[in-house]
Structures are given as structure tokens and as C-alpha cells.
Design brief:
The chain is globular and about 95 Å long. It contains 27 helices and 21 strands. The protein has 733 residues and is of the alpha/beta class. The strands form 4 sheets. It has a 7-stranded parallel sheet, sandwiched between helices.
Length: 733
């Protein structure tokens, strides 16, 4: 029988079933290898005490401190009516602050004996506040005697590793478990090719694992971190490089526009000149379309930077070359809007086969789930015969019934709304793999793009077209300064009097079943004792109150598609003054006459989402105004986030702020299936150089040895990264 490699050994064999169960359930650790890669969050120095002054509330913490005093109190309670209840209060200090520990009942005896003044120990528990003072109730603790053999053994290094822990398993218990498995680190197969490791002066993997868990000096920690960051960046970039390599081997039909075709005719009629950025990005796309392997390009640009125009020119180039182009939108409202704006931009060039159509015109069809049977049949027929050169639709396009005559290009709008299965299903509609262009209006910092969308080449549009107006943004602190909110509604009235229109955005709809909602309260809701504001209630209150007399209408995702479209059409036509909506208007809605955006409970939205929403105003010649209404106190993180949004219009800058505030696991959120992020050591924003260098190395290695036959340890690391549950990991961008 084959012996199980040391690092694949299940933890329950090594640590026993009870500890292994807690590690699996609470930390997602199943094997010896998993535990070795559970790195310390920080280190305490034996001679230097933790800062008690900056302990976070409600978090599980581990501190190293000294007992200042301990007092046993007796009191009467329902359980001990004759004054026999016991409470032990221990004060610990680290020189920077003091912290109270409390123990009750039978739990007082052991600490009463052990926690004598002058004793040093590690304490772990959840920080709470009692009588305005921070305290830990019934903390677990481990004495640091420095003489008892086991403790000396365990804490031999001067640096004590503090691990990400849970209430069920304290940091030092994880430390002890690691002590048990650490000898297996010698068996760790090194995924980095020898030449790369030596060329970059990185320590071998077994040494890095020993140094990260049992460092003797700070230099040990630095060496280990540098090495482990490289592992994460490199293995991920090899996976992405292999995808790029495999895609480049696929055949595709080159699509080159004709000099006298529909693209040339379209360009001749444009009432404005393209920006420098639009021209440059179009050239990159046309160059990709002309090659005989499929284009995979991510087009990212600010809200309103003219991505749709670039995508439309790419689709016309493919129609010129005899192919068809499909544009996939995440919602029906958006698909209808894209269809409307594309047919308007093209004019009679979109009327192929109709009276009055231009000579090299094509047909532009819409395909959504809620279309009537007859219209749908006609659209499907136009696609199958090739009569329609361009189709715009929702994921209804992916259904089996949809057949294309010759699908040459797929444009996906708003990447983060589509999973891999959908992208692949649509690709499968072509006789050969079609070219792919993914558009996103959420600007992504370069390193994140390299990490999450590493299988796509990236183009960036960072100029706004001429004629776009600046947008002023302000935070409205509704709780501290209610008169600011009153003034906000006055500003809306003033804009409407000038002939403009306004949006009011709320976090929820308001017709949810109360019973179902009540059960699932998030901690924030509990804390604030108020559900987020709702569209239906807000629309009614505004129409009766501060905006009485204006034409106020509501729009949300659960309305019937026809009703939604009717409201949007009325708003676009100027028949509605104020549209109260959910985030359905977040992407693609284009009403140049709308100049004000009021976002209620703005703290409930993410930074990128607020930036997207703000991009809906200032689309015409009049300046835009965005008001972020929040009841959060001034010092809160939520308010700081809103101040950041108000202070800059640069989406790339905002996406950096967003990432710095969220943790890495969230950044790669959808890119990783499975709850754990595979990045434990690498910080996407801080480690830009490592990621860029790893990408370069990975590309070279894959080009020389696509199957990694000469690098078996790297293959193993890759299989671990792309195990079953993460099969789709790279594509879930």
C-alpha cells in the first residue's frame, strides 16, 4: 500500500479527532499541509508587551501581559442567595494600558491560584465593555513561566507567533499543534524552479515554513514572508499563464474590416471625434481580431468613458468580415438600453433588409427572456440565417435553442455579473471559438487585474469624452445635521425648476415579507435597530413631503420588465422629475438631463457601487451633483469611506481605497470559489512588484514547458490550487 505523503496526512491521525474537527470546521484546515500553511498573523516579543490600549471591540484577541492585581468578591445572586456567589477580577497591564479579566462561579478557583500579581501569561478571549471599561470575560490563558519544561520548549524562540484563531481554539493551542507537525515541513516539495529560487535569493520552502512558525529573529520572519509570497504569486500566475497559452493554441477566424464596409460608413457619420483613448484601444482590439487565435480582452474604463462606442466599432468590424457579434448584458433593462442606443447610433445602418436601410446595413436584434413568442421566433430566425449581424440580449442568448449563422465576437458587459459557465456556453455557439471582449465600468487596479483577470489582456479607457461635465459630491450627515438633509431636497427642487431631473437611490425595495426579513438580521441592522431605507416608502414620503408637486416615480428589480421599461422611457423622455430606484440604475442608464443623484443610506453600498451610481449624472452639458446621505457617526469607518468617494472622481484611486479597506479574501471574492482565499501571505495592493515579476517568470516557464513536465513539484502545487472546488476559480471574476 502506498504511504500517504507526510503533508497529505489527515490532521485527525496526527492531532486526534477532537482538535481536527474544530480545525476543519472553524479554520478550514484538513491536512498537515493545510496547517503548515496557516501562518501567524503577527508575533509577540517575550520582552515587549502587547498594546492593550488599542484592542478592537467584539473581536477575538490574544494578548501577552502581566497581572497587576487580583481580587475575589462574593455577592448574592439568584443561584447563590446567601452571598456565596464568587467573582474574580484580575487586572492585567502591559505598560500601555490596563484590561480587566473576570471569572465567575466555579471558574474562579484555578485562575485564583495561578494568576498572582507579577505573573506573565498569554490571554485570549472576546473584548467587551462593562462599566465603560474594556474587559475579557472568562478568557483562556497560558502562563509564560520560562522554567517549566514544556513552556520553555514551546516558546523557545524570543518571538511568540499569534495565529488567526477562533473562540473554540486559542492561538497557543494552534501553536502546539504546529509544534507536532512542524517536522513534516522537511518533506514539503518546492514548487519554485531551482534557477528561479536561487536567482532571486529566496530560501527553500522547508526552511521558510520553519522560520515562519518558529522564528528566532525578525530577519527570519522577513525571509520566510518573502519566500511564501513568491509561492502564492507564482503558482497563481502559472495557472493563468497556462490558460492564456491554451487559449492562444485555439484556432479562430481572423476578422478584418473592409475599407468600404459598414464600419467605415459608421465612422463617416459620427457627429464627434473619438478620444485619443478610444482610438488607441480600438487599434488594440482590431489587431487582436485580425489574428488566427481568439482575442481575450478586458476593456475597463470610467463610467461614461465611451466603452459602448469602442465595443460597437469592434462588432461592426466583425460584421464587415462576414461574422456576427453578440453583446451580453446582465439585466433586461440594460439589454433594452444597449439595443436602443446601438440602433440610434447606427441609424439606417441598423435597418438591414428593411425599406430605407443603407446599402451595407445589417440587422440589430434584441433577445430577452420576456419577449413575446412571435418576436422571439423572428429574432431566432434572423440569427440562424445570418440576417442579423448584431444581437443584444441577456443570458437568454445562451439557451440551447439559439443558433448563430457565424458567431465571431462576444462582448460581455459588466464582467462581475457573469460566471464562467455562461461565458463558455456562449463561446460554444461559434463554429470556432469566437473572439471575446469583456467590459467593466468598475476600475480595477493593475495588480488586481493581473491576479483576477490574468487570462485576459487589459485595455484601459481613462479619458472622458468631450462635453462630459464635472460632478460635485458631498456627504450629508442626516443624523448630526438634519437641516443638511432638508437642504438636499431643496437642491433637488432647484434642479427640477431649471428643467433637469434627479435620481434618489435606496438600498432595498420595501415590499419584502417582513417575517422572512425579521429572521435574517445582519449584525449591522441589529446595531442600528433600523432596516435600510426602501424605495416604495421613500417614494411615497417624498411625494407627500419635501418633493410634493413634483412627478415622482419608483423603479426596482421586481417590477414586470414592461413596467420597468415604461418607467425608464418616461424618465428618459422627461415626463418624470424624480426617479426613486434601487441599484437597477447602477449600470448603463443614460439620461443626460439628470443632474442630481441622492443616495440614501449611502454607507450600505460599496465604494465601487457608489462610484458607479454617481456616474449616472453629469452625462450632459450641465454639471452633476451627488449627495451621499448617511446616519453613521463622523468617526466611523463607513463615514471615512463616504468621504473618500466624495473627495475624488478617479475610479482607479477609489478601487485602491476599496481594496485597502477590505481584506484580500474579499478582493478575490468571486475569483475564488471556496470560502478561503488562496492568498494567505500576498497582499494584492502592496505586493505589486512580486505579482508583476511572477507573471513574467510564469509566462516564460509555460512557453518553454506548457505541460510542466520538467517541474513535477510545481504541477502538484498547481493541482492543489485548482482542486475540484476551485476548478472554476480563475474564471469567476
Amino acid at each position: 500500500m502506498d504511504c500517504v505523503p507526510a503533508l497529505d496526512e489527515p490532521l485527525k491521525k496526527v492531532l486526534g479527532p477532537a482538535t481536527a474537527k474544530v480545525m476543519a470546521e472553524h479554520l478550514g484546515l484538513h491536512t498537515v499541509g493545510d496547517l503548515l500553511h496557516h501562518y501567524p498573523r503577527r508575533y509577540e516579543e517575550r520582552g515587549q508587551l502587547t498594546h492593550l490600549a488599542d484592542l478592537p471591540m467584539d473581536e477575538h484577541v490574544t494578548v501577552v501581559a502581566q497581572v497587576a492585581d487580583a481580587r475575589l468578591h462574593t455577592f448574592a445572586s439568584s443561584r447563590a442567595p446567601r452571598g456565596k456567589g464568587q467573582r474574580l477580577e484580575v487586572t492585567i497591564t502591559d505598560g500601555s494600558g490596563r484590561l480587566q479579566l473576570v471569572f465567575f462561579g466555579a471558574g474562579v478557583h484555578k485562575p485564583h491560584k495561578e494568576l498572582l500579581p507579577g505573573t506573565r501569561a498569554m490571554f485570549a478571549g472576546k473584548v467587551s465593555v462593562f462599566n465603560r471599561r474594556l474587559q475579557l470575560a472568562h478568557p483562556a490563558y497560558e502562563l509564560l513561566r520560562g522554567d517549566a519544561e514544556e513552556t520553555v520548549e514551546t516558546w523557545a524562540g524570543a518571538l511568540i507567533p499569534i495565529y488567526p484563531a477562533t473562540a473554540k481554539l486559542e492561538s497557543w493551542k494552534i501553536g502546539k499543534a504546529l509544534q507536532t507537525v512542524l517536522p513534516s515541513a522537511q518533506e514539503a516539495a518546492d514548487p519554485l524552479p531551482e534557477s528561479l529560487r536561487e536567482g532571486r535569493g529566496l530560501v527553500p520552502l522547508p526552511e521558510a515554513l520553519l522560520k515562519i512558525h518558529r522564528p528566532h529573529t525578525k530577519a527570519d520572519i522577513e525571509e520566510a514572508r518573502a519566500r511564501l509570497k513568491w509561492d502564492e504569486a507564482f503558482v497563481l500566475q502559472v495557472a493563468l499563464a497556462r490558460r492564456r497559452y491554451a487559449d492562444a493554441q485555439l484556432p479562430a477566424v481572423p476578422r478584418r474590416p473592409r475599407p468600404d464596409g459598414i464600419l467605415a460608413a459608421f465612422d463617416d457619420r459620427l457627429p464627434f471625434t473619438l478620444t485619443e483613448g478610444q482610438r488607441k484601444v480600438s487599434e488594440e482590439i482590431f489587431a487582436d481580431l485580425a489574428t488566427d487565435h481568439p482575442m481575450h480582452r478586458l476593456l475597463q474604463g470610467e463610467v461614461g468613458s465611451g466603452k459602448t462606442m469602442v465595443a460597437l466599432r469592434a462588432m461592426l468590424a466583425v460584421v464587415d468580415a462576414g461574422g456576427q457579434a453578440a453583446m451580453l448584458a446582465p439585466t433586461e433593462v440594460l439589454a433594452q438600453q444597449h439595443h436602443r442606443s446601438v440602433t440610434e447610433m447606427m441609424g439606417d445602418l441598423a435597418q438591414g433588409g428593411m425599406l430605407g436601410g443603407a446599402e451595407n446595413a445589417t440587422k440589430v436584434v434584441l433577445l430577452t427572456g420576456s419577449m413575446g413568442a412571435a418576436a422571439r421566433r423572428q429574432a431566432l430566425l434572423d440569427l440562424a440565417t445570418g440576417e442579423a449581424g448584431i444581437v443584444i440580449g441577456t443570458h437568454a442568448l445562451i439557451e440551447d435553442k439559439v443558433q448563430f449563422h457565424d458567431l465571431g465576437l462576444v462582448v460581455v458587459d459588466e464582467q462581475h455579473r457573469f460566471g464562467v459557465e455562461q461565458r463558455d456556453a456562449l463561446r460554444g455557439k461559434g463554429k470556432q471559438p469566437p473572439h471575446l471582449l469583456v467590459m467593466t465600468a468598475t476600475p480595477i487596479p493593475r495588480t488586481v487585474a493581473m491576479t483576477v483577470f490574468g487570462d485576459l489582456e487589459t485595455s484601459v479607457l481613462d479619458q472622458l469624452p468631450a462635453g462630459r461635465s464635472p460632478i460635485a459630491s458631498h456627504v450629508v450627515p442626516a443624523a448630526d445635521k438634519p437641516h443638511f438633509l432638508a437642504r438636499a431636497w431643496e437642491r433637488v427642487r432647484e434642479e427640477v425648476e431649471k428643467g433637469h431631473q434627479a435620481y434618489v437611490v435606496c438600498p432595498r425595495i420595501g415590499d419584502e415579507e417582513e417575517g422572512a426579513k425579521a429572521k435574517k438580521k445582519s449584525p449591522e441592522d441589529e446595531a442600528e435597530k433600523r432596516p435600510p431605507l426602501a424605495v416604495l416608502d421613500t417614494a411615497e414620503q417624498l411625494a407627500r413631503g419635501p418633493l410634493a408637486g413634483l412627478r415622482v416615480e419608483a423603479l426596482h428589480g421586481r417590477m414586470h420588465p414592461d413596467d420597468k421599461d415604461a418607467v425608464m422611457r418616461r424618465f428618459a423622455a422627461g415626463e418624470v422629475d424624480v426617479l426613486v430606484a434601487t441599484t437597477v440604475i447602477e449600470v448603463g442608464v443614460n439620461v443626460p438631463n439628470a443632474t442630481v443623484m441622492v443616495i440614501m443610506d449611502a454607507d450600505r453600498f460599496g465604494v465601487s457601487q457608489l462610484h458607479q451610481l454617481r456616474g449616472r449624472v453629469g452625462r450632459g452639458s450641465a454639471p452633476g451633483l451627488c449627495l451621499l446621505v448617511s446616519e453613521m457617526p463622523e468617526a466611523s469607518a463607513a463615514r471615512q469611506r463616504l468621504n473618500a468617494v466624495a473627495s475624488t472622481l478617479d475610479g482607479f484611486e477609489l478601487s485602491r481605497i476599496d481594496l485597502e479597506q477590505r481584506r484580500e479574501g474579499d478582493v478575490l471574492g468571486q475569483a475564488q470559489s471556496g470560502t478561503r482565499s488562496s492568498l494567505r501571505m500576498l497582499a494584492v495592493i502592496d505586493d505589486e512588484e512580486v505579482i508583476a515579476e511572477a507573471r513574467e517568470e510564469a509566462t516564460g516557464i509555460v512557453a518553454a514547458d506548457p505541460e510542466l513536465e520538467r517541474l513535477p513539484a510545481l504541477r502538484t502545487a498547481l493541482d492543489a490550487l485548482l482542486d475540484e472546488e476551485r476548478e472554476q476559480y480563475l474564471e469567476k471574476g
